[in-house]
């Protein structure tokens, strides 16, 4: 464990610390008074910190690279409300020196436990073909492990290691809770869709040291990537019922629910309709959580709304906090 | 019970029947060959039937009125695929002659049972104020009984007697099933919203003999009517916590989820967001059921989609039926 | 009267002034060179001024609060084209020390005169019920006075004390001027709508020291607030003709003219249609005035358009000024 | 004057009449029983009537043409709620036999009087150049007379002879009534725009015997036609102030107020903004009048709304009639 | 060759013909006068004809099926402007009795010649991988022949046998003509996209006896079907350059150019952009041709526009015909 | 030729240069430390450079003006990644001192050659009237020369001297290449449209020292300006065939292809449809070129997309560069 995390800055104001960081950005800039300095962004799993190194940065420049790790010494301060660090020492750090888990946000739930929960649900499938299909993904040598560590997004909901698995598991549970009210829905089929709908994200996103979109992600998109993976698995599992293949494929293609969100088809079956609605609900609550946290940490009072949320075209309001506040 | 219902027509082809109907429409028209005839629409809770009376309709015209009941005798036939009846006798029927329950579609669930289920849920509220509020509606001398018989819509989802209560009860159950996954949600508040969100329909709709919109329904709308009723109840219950009043009012105003659906506000709180999403899901599945039934009764095969559904801009597809069909 | 107003800054460049201000914002910040300083926004009815206090601000911090008044001494200067003040003294000022009228923009028309004009118009109503209704608002102990001082908006049109009354009075006059051309319009009804359409703003906005939205304003909105107030008044005035109640309520609910502007109903009656169109016209001309003034004060020439006006998706052009410029 | 007009049909039920009509449509069709008959639409200024000629129509076919006049004899009857005439005689009628004024709907206001009113307003212009410009149109040998007889539309508002002049005159008056409330507006400029904004309709529409769009109307449109006419007039009037030319041209180009209504520019000046809003108001009230009349003549009660009005996406409601109905 | 085609009806008015047809629809209906008759739609490659069989249709009903062939005898007549046939004899016809080419519209260009032209272009590819890829489709035992006979659509552009090949070949030629003006474009890549973009139609459409959508076509769509086929081919051709695979896949996914047309991605590369634009142009001109032909065959004059074309929200106008008409 | 161009900055880092520039902006600002300095933007045809003059700028202020030329001496440096110049000397420069060609971006193709190419194409017109029409523009004393030097836009495609001619010539060539595939298209008419469609830009834009919109450009727009010019030319050329006039006018009015882009009419003829589509294609490829260049010069790798392109709502991707990068 590191001795200092970005989120600890307030407790270390004006103190000198020594710690490891990921070098997210590094750039030489001109001083107003002549000469140059080094401007950096250092990050770990708790956030990012602006850094400045005013002198003697030759070694830093020579040995460190963006996307790599560094060991630094410097003083924490607050400038215009933002925390920063003024470096006195900086050198490259080998991956062996650090605990890489320190440098990326991870799900608060243990992967093994989430995986076990998901597999237990799949084990209960009545439909042997769908079970075979889902397991062919979970047990795939490449896709399986990636599915267990991938984030669910670059910046929005569940943007942390194993966020995809966390998102899928919650969605599966909500599916299981609501399906009984809709007798038109085949539960195994629905859960299959919930598990596979975002499987394309294992190739749409890259999560080496930061979370970014791959080129294939940008040009093909996780919906069509997932469809390609499905077709390949179905071929391997042959004979596989053609009707199930079409129904699962339809759920994947339509789960964004609207053409303008990149779904080439709109949900036509009960399972596709329910999956799409519950996935949207998950996304909205994830956004709500982020906004509530941001509002609270920026010092907003209980009777104030969040900032305007552009993706929803409205501000949000934390009713629980307001009611609690009254008592 | 009537001896003949509209839905029985196929079993009575070319037979003469005598029965009671609601006179939905009545109009004199010119025969091509000179003279006039009487064109009518007769209905009961199972549907509507075109009727023609070619001669001797003076008494019928003199005594019967649109919206009233009539006793008729006539022969059932099929013309261009539609069932119709050619009348030989027709006279007005007093309300005392008929069982009014024969003339309007009613929920398949007993009202008393649904009401009891709903009240049991309200009894479990932890929040005494919200319980008081909901009960003030359920126990209101005018609103309460209306709420238990009103349909939920003129033609779309739950367009039958007690359809509103049926819709509300299902929605409340889905709310209770999903709320545990969203800790931001106050369950009592959510359920209050689910019970009251459509309460304005008791004045938006009229369900005397047919289901129609009242003028107030067209010019004010059930959202604003509900808001007015809420304000009146809150005044009667004073002192009532202002914060709860605002949060419930917000759920009512925002439950359609989009401005273009007549919501003057978009959902901002976790409860409003969840209520709006689940209410939308209910409406979509109700539409899906209607479309699947229509497709099946029009003779569509299991591998055919329904007709194009304009409100959703797509056809739908009954996956369960297709999978069952294979086996 | 204050000895110095924000708008006087150019005449006082590099001079030391002493005056009272409203403390809109106050924040401690770190100096680049170590230590802290105080960054403030000071305002009066003529605008807002950035302030800096570099040293000895302990008393200021200890006694002053955001939203309160302060007496300050400092030097006016211009930094990057913006006026600012460097404070040497600052202390809290009691409300009794200041003339609160100095701190908020107010309508250029006397309230008493506008009120009298409006009441004279209401006195001429032929319809006694509508007259009763309007007077019940104007004479209400809480709503009446609020209606006479409220601004019409937080930032857009008529964002000054008594701006609501000013907006309403102009709108009423334009209604009276145009109604004769539309015989379908009931003038008393139209004017009632014009007076009451924005009455909900007395609770949607707060204008203590700045203009802001109340939480109820954000979650309920002035349209639905107004509808609630109307229902309460109608109850008090009972018996009140139901038809007039519905028609007035419809005008309030539909006056924004479009669902996406928060109207739950579209204008269906001649009065609602005309009111909505003229209210929109008022808003557009108010925006135009602001833009023309801004263009002129930013030094734009007579043959230049204003900046791009996002709400209208176009720039505007002052034709009068251009024609005058030619002569 | 004709002895029988289309609107008189109810008074002549089952009677034989002889009268002149315009032959709007004429077509031979097959009888079900073999042989042919003649199906026609006959019209005059009060409406259109379906006609059938079952036998002996050789002369009719030989001498009559669509768009021409005919003298007919036949019996009036009502079939499925629609009035029709069964012809026994029909022959071509020369234009000299008829009073062409009988065959097209005309404004209820005398042309000479409307023209005089308009000219009186123009005479009051303070701006000599704008007066010259407007008069150059009114006094133009081709445009002037066409402007005085043209309809304002093919089917929608003011679709009758001299409807354009009637529309323009009303619009000018509403402009004069509202302009005083908007000091940013140059009244002469505004009125010039009101008079010329639709001048392109003299070439967009054809009103020989029916009202139709010309090909130029369809491919160029009245906005661009008007702009072309303006440019030609300005050239003839040279020297004409360039600034006035641009401001008038801008009003013409922007008067539809929205790109999707065919305006290549949005209103940027006070005059263009006001003109566009008032022109839209005129169109909406004209539509409202048509809908109220249609509702009343189709037997709708005072408390019923009109049919759904597609262009406005809502039904309308005649508040005056409802209020009168109560008393 | 059949002795009578649907398009020959005008030449056979009132004559009795004997010929083979495809039975598109067949339904028993009630006569007004009691009893039943047979209502049918008969079709061949030149169009469809309504048919009625009033008596003695027991054999017809017993032996014929929708989608099969029939030999009929009947009299041609015109009823309300539509041609129809009154049958006196009808029996099932074996596929061996007919020339199936008589029953579906086919491209006016020989398949072999179009195929040869296309292959010649592919032979000229500089890029060996893309050549391999395209040939793997053209030479595929299942896809290849289907690609050569499939229509391009159910009803819109190129809705005839081999219409897909015809559309593709034209598009390829326009691509080759325009590519030289856009140096950013890789011609082989562009042409590959043009050949493969619609390849999914071989499974989206069915063209046994009529043209319809398959269920897979409705639920997956030709874009995603094509993507699936591409992935399979690329696997078979391994090793295949990943970059080319992504670029071709991107062209397929984005060729509809807009999300609302079912493209899950928008064109990002020069080739995707150009392909999408030229494909759209092809579709528009195909629509224009249909509209011009329909206008001419419905008797419209050279100076009249076509009917309103809903998909383009405007009428069209045949400029060539109008100019020719003048001379 | 200047000794230093803006684009040469990297080669002159920290060196002192002397050169001529256009003074795009000039402003006095306050130093933080008291006193003032001069902030300027200096530009030439290769770009713009921020400049600062800290002392002794009295002469500069006294003699130089925005939009004029200046001779300066100063040192090149890089501040926060942007190049700038610190001036030590600055004085006004007469137009005679400079080569004005140094100060505006110009087409890379010689004007005379482009003009000759265009005229050769016009010479080949079969239609003498269209040839007369086009030449009347090219040979016009005012329009002709302006057409040869005007840019095609203020900032977007072909924003350089003679950019309009360059755009038109390319468009004409693409028209000639594609027209043969669309037999509905009259090539002379199409090319006439291609040459004249943007002719209004000669009055919409001003290109004295920078490129800006004229007031007429903003209030009338190049589409309507072009239509006005066409009408004047047609009058001069009388007799000119009315049909050709309408068809050319229609192409001009509809070439933006969508109402929201300011076209008052949508393309209805084959020529208007093709012209509009190819013009759009030109604009898109021009944007693509800019974005590819910007991405490359900002150091993006071959496998990265460009920045998000707002006008197209997507990023773009240079496929050629990526494929080349692999080899």
Low-confidence stretches of chain A: none
Mean pLDDT over the residues of chain A: 90
Oligomer: homohexamer
Q: Percent helix among the residues of chain A?
A: 40-55%
- Approximately how much beta-strand content do the residues of chain A carry? 15-25%
Dominant shape of chain A = globular
Distance between the termini of chain A: 40 Å
Instruction: Please provide the count of β strands of chain A.
Output: 7
Structure description:
Six copies of one chain form a homohexamer. By secondary structure, the first copy, chain A, is an alpha+beta fold. Helix content of chain A is 42%, strand content 18%. Chain A has twelve helices and seven strands. Chain A has helices spanning 58-63, 111-123, 128-138, 143-149, 163-178, 187-196, 201-204, 215-219, 221-236, 242-254, 270-297, 319-326; strands spanning 16-30, 36-44, 47-53, 69-79, 82-93, 205-206, 212-213. The model of chain A has no long low-confidence stretch (mean pLDDT 90). At the A-B interface, helix 5, helix 10, helix 11 and helix 12 of A face helix 5, helix 10, helix 11, strand 9 and helix 12 of B.
């Amino acid at each position: 464990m590191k001795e200092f995390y970005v989120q600890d800055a307030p407790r270390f104001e004006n103190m000198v610390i020594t710690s490891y960081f990921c070098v997210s950005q590094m750039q030489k800039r001109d001083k107003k008074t002549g000469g140059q300095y080094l401007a950096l962004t250092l990050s770990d799993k708790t956030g990012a910190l602006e850094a400045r190194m005013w002198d003697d940065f030759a070694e830093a420049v020579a040995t460190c690279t963006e996307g790599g790790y560094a060991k630094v010494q410097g003083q924490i301060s607050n400038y215009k409300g933002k925390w920063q660090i003024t470096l006195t020492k900086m050198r490259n750090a080998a991956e062996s020196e650090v605990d890489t888990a320190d440098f990326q946000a991870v799900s608060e739930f243990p992967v093994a436990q989430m995986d076990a929960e998901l597999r237990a649900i799949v084990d209960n499938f009545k439909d042997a073909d769908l079970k075979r299909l889902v397991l062919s993904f979970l047990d795939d040598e490449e896709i399986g492990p990636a599915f267990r560590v991938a984030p669910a997004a670059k910046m929005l909901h569940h943007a942390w290691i194993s966020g995809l698995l966390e998102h899928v598991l919650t969605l599966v549970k909500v599916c299981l809770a609501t399906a009984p009210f809709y007798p038109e829905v085949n539960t195994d089929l629905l859960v299959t869709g919930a598990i596979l709908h975002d499987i394309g994200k294992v190739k749409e996103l890259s999560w080496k040291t930061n979370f970014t979109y791959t080129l294939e992600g940008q040009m093909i998109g996780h919906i069509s990537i997932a469809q390609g993976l499905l077709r390949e698995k179905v071929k391997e599992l042959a004979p596989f019922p053609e009707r199930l293949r079409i129904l699962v494929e339809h759920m994947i293609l339509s789960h964004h629910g609207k053409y303008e969100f990149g779904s080439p088809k709109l949900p036509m079956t009960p399972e596709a309709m329910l999956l799409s609605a519950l996935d949207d609900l998950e996304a909205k609550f994830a956004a709500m959580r982020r906004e509530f946290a941001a509002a609270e940490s920026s010092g907003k009072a209980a009777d104030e709304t969040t900032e305007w949320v552009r993706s929803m075209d409205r501000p949000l309001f934390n009713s629980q906090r307001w009611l609690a506040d009254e008592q």
